[in-house]
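Subject: Re: docking follow-up (adenosine-5'-triphosphate)

Dear J.,

Thanks for your patience while I sorted out the input files. As discussed at Tuesday's group meeting, I've set up the holo structure prediction with adenosine-5'-triphosphate included as the bound ligand rather than trying to dock it afterwards. The sequence and the ligand SMILES I used are pasted below, so you can double-check that they match what you have on your end before we go further.
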Amino acid sequence: MPAIELTNVSKVYGNHKNKFTALNNINLTVELGEFVAIVGPSGSGKTTLLNIMGCMDSPTRGECKIMDRSTTGLKDSQLIHIRNRVVSFIFQHYALLNNYSVYDNVTLPFAERKMSKHEKKEKAKQYLSKLGIEDLFHKKVKNLSGGQKQRVAIARALASEAEIIFADEPTGALDSTNADKLMEILCNLNNEGKTIIVITHDSHVASYANRKLFMKDGSITFDEPLIVQKEA
Ligand SMILES: Nc1ncnc2c1ncn2[C@@H]1O[C@H](COP(=O)(O)OP(=O)(O)OP(=O)(O)O)[C@@H](O)[C@H]1O
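The structure tokens for the complex came back this morning:
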């Protein structure tokens, strides 16, 4: 089953006097389990595309399907459900609650689930230890380094148990060592079956993905597929 399917998707911003076409008739299928990097110059439409795929915005024309389900005409509550449970997001500037603890941030996706306090704590510990930061459990986010904050953001994405993880410039605020560590974490999650879609300006970051989409002026100009090396 495709994770994402876009058919003739366009996005036009502004009104009739001042229109700007940010996406121009995009057709794209991302299968479950793929690791895709979207690259392209500033203003080429990468974030607009990600926002539509993640149900944070709707197309002006065309259709977006997530896990085989069209998002056209869905009620706000249904879109919220998709954003909470089917997809998750990692952002360049983390989008964490700075004055709250790591535990509070990681357990945010549990808010609407029937779980005991004990269960929440155990699950949070499990995800934090997966990312090697279980010792940060009680720390306030504002006291963490950039690399630590981004790991907390990934732990929160895992806590949502979403199949699809979108990451918009996730290494943009990290040094190269932490950027590599972060991309290795995303590779491991992809190896475990998560579908990962990353926006990046950085070709080294994009090299971790096994498919690269190049964007220019609202179109996908090149789609570099996974090259499967056959054993001799
Ligand atoms: N709300 C909006 N209203 C009008 N124009 C917008 C809006 N959001 C984005 N745009 C325009 O749409 C185009 C695509 O923007 P988008 O943010 O998707 O590009 P991007 O490739 O992600 O850029 P960057 O790499 O700089 O983040 C840009 O020209 C931008 O100015």
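A couple of observations from a first look. The pocket of adenosine-5'-triphosphate is lined by residues 13-14, 20, 22, 40, 42-48 (CB under 6 Å). The first helix runs from residue 46 to 53.

Let me know if you'd like me to rerun anything.

Best regards,
T.
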